[in-house]
TrEMBL record:
Record keyword Oxidoreductase present: yes
Cofactor(s) the record lists: FAD
GO molecular function: oxidoreductase activity
Entry keywords, A to Z: FAD, Flavoprotein, Oxidoreductase
Identification of the protein by name: Alpha/beta hydrolase family protein
InterPro entries from the UniProt entry: AB_hydrolase_fold (IPR029058), Cholesterol_Oxidase (IPR052542)
Lineage per the UniProt record: Bacteria, Pseudomonadati, Bacteroidota, Cytophagia, Cytophagales
Family classification: Belongs to the GMC oxidoreductase family.
Length: 339
């Protein structure tokens, strides 16, 4: 089992976050790699009980592995955040902390979902000059969602906000009040996939699939049970920001702010090479999301960036899949090792 050292850091606005650094028996021989989780989970999402997870494979290949718990992490107190706050404050501070501890001049990053969108905003603003390679999964600059997800963002979120500030898949295990019990009843009545009730709550909360974030055939029994502890509170403020970005077709600021441009696509300031991954069967963000972002970067610098569309994979099973160590991680390592 992988063991980590927990290293606290403060975001630029003072928010308390932390990093997990993999403990190694022998010193790393390669650069630090930062893994950035999505919304409503935590850094541990990259450490499932599969045969070989991404953390293990990075370590075996000599990398100094770091996992970021930014303000969306369920290891931290729940808070209402948007992508702009995270991009301005969390990721730049995390990168600076890693550089300060290790003395590395440059690092690489593997980013997922809303960790990816927010990290890409940081990169667009020129706040991550130390990062020379970004491997992004699921979505980055151009969020494209299924039609049902658009309906959920427009209709479901405003209704839910009348009763809740957060949604929490842990209510599948324990619903504390009548409101959470009512929502659990709705989940039971609308999701019939062969998943745990927490897993069904995850699908109810995110995306448009049954299930939404993984293909059940890609998840082994141990990981299916483990997932139940890896999802918790996500603020509805995030969904409001994503609704605005989806309607625009690309990432834009949530509120007017003189520190921010009108959009995050034009004027992208990072010089990092960008490699994009997308599950062909993703029911949270369609693979078209990453295709659009790749086409944008490829126009700017042809044949420099990369794109992989993964057959048989969805959203999070790119990292949690029982065969990801054979199908996915070698592709990521090839890009990390590409000079």
């Amino acid at each position: 089992m992988n063991q980590f050292e927990r290293i606290a850091f403060q975001a630029s606005d003072g928010h308390a976050c932390d990093l997990l650094r993999l403990r190694r028996d022998t010193p790393a021989t390669k650069t630090p790699v930062l893994l950035v989780h999505g919304a409503g989970v935590r850094a541990n999402i990259f450490n499932p009980p599969t045969k070989k997870n991404i953390v293990t494979m990075l370590a075996e290949n000599g990398y100094d592995v770091w996992l970021e718990n930014w303000r969306a992490s369920i290891d931290l107190p729940p808070n209402e955040w948007d992508l702009d706050q995270v991009a301005l404050n969390d990721h730049p501070a995390a990168v600076k902390k890693i550089v300060g501890v290790t003395g590395a001049k440059n690092i690489k990053a593997i980013i997922h979902c809303q960790g990816s969108t927010s990290f890409m905003i940081s990169a667009s603003l020129g706040l991550l000059p130390e990062v020379d390679l970004i491997i992004s999964n699921a979505v980055s600059l151009h969020p494209v969602v299924p039609r049902y997800s658009r309906v959920k963002l427009k209709v479901f979120v405003p209704v839910v906000k009348l009763l809740f500030k957060y949604l929490n898949p842990q209510w599948g295990l324990s619903a504390p009040t009548w409101r959470e019990k009512m929502l659990r009843w709705i989940v039971k009545g609308t999701h019939f996939e062969d998943d745990t009730l927490v897993g069904k709550f995850v699908s109810f909360t995110y995306g448009a699939g049954f299930p939404a974030l993984w293909q059940m055939e890609n998840i082994d029994a141990a990981t299916r049970d483990w997932i139940q502890q890896e999802f918790a509170a996500v603020p509805l403020t995030f969904f409001d920001h994503m609704k605005k970005c989806v309607a625009n077709g690309a990432l834009v600021p949530f509120h007017a702010d003189n520190r921010l441009p009108s959009d995050y696509v034009s004027g992208f300031k990072s010089t990092a090479r960008i490699v994009l991954f997308a599950g062909e069967l993703n029911h949270c963000f369609k693979a078209e999301s990453q295709q659009r972002t790749f086409e944008h970067f490829d126009r700017l610098k042809p044949k420099y960036h990369g794109l992989y569309i993964l057959k048989g994979y969805s959203h999070l099973d790119v990292f949690l899949g029982k065969n990801a160590h054979e199908d996915v991680f070698p592709l990521m390592l090839k890009e990390l090792n590409n000079p």
